[in-house]
Design goal:
Blueprint lengths: L1 E5 L7 E2 L2 E2 L1 H17 L4 E5 L10 H15 L4 E5 L6 H5 L2 H5 L3 E4 L10 E5 L6 E5 L6 H4 L8 H28 L10 E6 L32 E5 L5 E3 L2 E6 L16 E8 L2 E9 L6 E6 L4 H25 L3 H13 L7 E7 L8 H8 L5 E8 L1 H6 L14 H9 L7 H47 L1
Parallel strand pairs: 1-4, 4-5, 5-6, 8-9, 9-10, 10-12, 15-16, 16-17
Antiparallel strand pairs: 1-13, 2-3, 7-8, 11-12, 13-14
Helix pairs in contact: 1-2, 1-8, 7-8
Length: 466
């Protein structure tokens, strides 16, 4: 059996005012082509299908359209909810999507059969047992008691997560050997959407505090044949293990991921165990670049980075055209790559090492990039430069700070010495993350309503014209 492991699509994301819809659509087209050319039996999406719990209508349409097209290829789909996803939204379409070869696991369930099941290939006689674990919310698996310290809560939560994995894994082991009269077993594929200790994160990853647990030890995972993880956007092995992996996001979700090669994982199973894993690199659908510079070398550094990025993109086009697998999927893959919207425009983040605040900086940058194939989305001083400014001279604009940085700056003013103060800090962190998520959901709802209103107005206008 051959499966694709992917995660963290974040459909519906807006990036400094820019829609990622064209990139996401090209990725989904590319993924369907890969499922055909690589003879894939199933695709596992390990969480964060959407960027918010109330994604815009076009993102939902993209999701359902992908499922319908994938169903026609006889490739199955397993969708796990992440911390960005709405349990209610994913649950509402669960039953109907089962008719389209899609299993959606939106939350931890008391019904074990919803999380542990045998996946039968629609193309071959191959089978695998899926131990499907979505993003775990503390209320789903543990009860808190008054008087518990932060350390006690952390230990009890880690133990509850470990036990949840173990209970499901034992059920999976039973299914793995059931009906296998020849003594063989079915491979067990587990999932997860969380941070493991030692994982390399990026700016776009929102910290998950499952209660008070910041990271889960990889040693506590059960002995599954493959563990497909989501939440971390950089592709990586966990504890250098071939069988425990983050697939990473399919597109760069922050500028510090600009030079990260995005990929999917193709895992192959034979004779009841993992036989091979390989990374399949994605084409870059929208180039991003960071320019770290000084005022004195601003023009030279911007030009150098842009020229380097253009060479990189040309080399990538050549490698796609010459790829051995291009014969089967070259037509659509090459077309979508060459016609990507904004190919001529590289999105730039310019970070300047300077403690000075120059009012004419935007004008200077505008003149520099005037003849270059770029669009500047962000201009800011480096964090180090801002910190080195004397407090009485600091002129930091909100545009240079993330919401997280504003919150962290305020928290830094408080003493956190005693256990009681540490508990208060934990509660405030949890409250902040809740409010941030609610605000994001509210903004997304406004965006959806605005798009719906524009679509309705356009439809009404066309009707009147007729």
């Amino acid at each position: 059996m051959r499966i694709i492991h992917t995660s963290d699509w974040h459909l519906g994301q807006h990036f400094y005012g820019k829609s990622r819809a064209p990139e996401h659509q090209q990725f989904l087209n590319w993924l369907i082509e890969q499922s055909k050319s690589q003879q894939i039996d199933a695709i596992i999406v390990a969480g964060d299908i959407f960027d918010t719990g109330t994604p815009p209508s076009y993102a939902r349409e993209m999701y359902f359209d992908f499922i319908a097209k994938l169903h026609q290829t006889h490739c199955q789909l397993v969708v796990l909810a992440g911390n960005h996803d709405s349990v209610a939204m994913l649950t509402e379409s669960q039953k109907i999507l089962q008719q389209l070869s899609t299993r959606v696991i939106s939350a931890v369930s008391d019904n074990m059969a919803e999380q542990v099941f045998v996946l039968n290939s629609l193309k071959t006689e191959q089978q695998a047992v899926i131990c499907a674990i979505p993003f775990i919310r503390p209320r789903d698996i543990v009860k808190s008691y008054a008087g518990q310290s932060a350390n006690q809560k952390q230990r009890s939560l880690q133990q509850a997560i470990t036990e949840h994995y173990q209970v499901l894994f034992e059920q999976a082991q039973g299914l793995s050997q059931l009906n296998q009269a020849d003594g063989t077993r079915l491979p067990i594929i587990a999932t997860g959407h969380l941070t493991t200790i030692g994982a390399s994160t990026s700016e776009s990853v929102r910290d998950i505090y499952i209660g008070t647990l910041e990271a889960f030890p990889a040693s506590e995972f059960p002995a599954a044949d493959y563990i497909a993880l989501g939440h971390i956007h950089r592709p990586q092995k966990v504890t250098k293990s071939e069988h425990i992996r983050y697939s990473g996001s399919p597109i760069a979700l922050s500028f510090d991921e600009a030079n990260t090669q995005k990929s999917i994982v193709i895992a192959e199973f034979n004779n009841g165990e993992l036989s091979n894993t390989e990374l399949c690199n994605l084409p870059c659908f929208q180039p991003l670049a960071m320019v770290k510079t000084h005022l004195e070398t601003l023009s030279e550094d911007i030009t150098r980075v842009v020229e380097s990025k253009n060479i990189e993109l040309k080399n990538e086009d050549s490698s796609i055209a010459e790829s051995p697998s291009a014969e089967s999927s070259s037509v659509e893959a090459k077309i979508t790559h060459d016609e990507r919207p904004g190919q001529e425009k590289i999105w730039l983040d310019i970070e300047i090492e300077s403690a000075e605040y120059l009012q004419d900086l935007s004008v200077r940058i505008e003149q520099i990039v005037k003849a270059l194939p770029v669009e500047v989305l962000l201009v800011r001083r480096s964090k180090k430069s801002r910190q080195q400014m004397p407090s009485h001279e600091k002129k930091v604009t909100l545009s240079e700070l993330s919401v997280q940085e504003v919150f962290d700056a305020r928290m830094a003013l408080e003493p956190w010495d005693s256990d009681e103060q540490q508990q208060r800090k934990t509660r405030l962190n949890s409250l902040y993350l809740t409010i941030a998520e609610q605000t994001q959901l509210a903004n997304s709802s406004k965006q959806s309503l605005s798009e719906h209103s524009e679509a309705h107005s356009s439809s009404t206008s066309k009707t009147e014209q007729k």
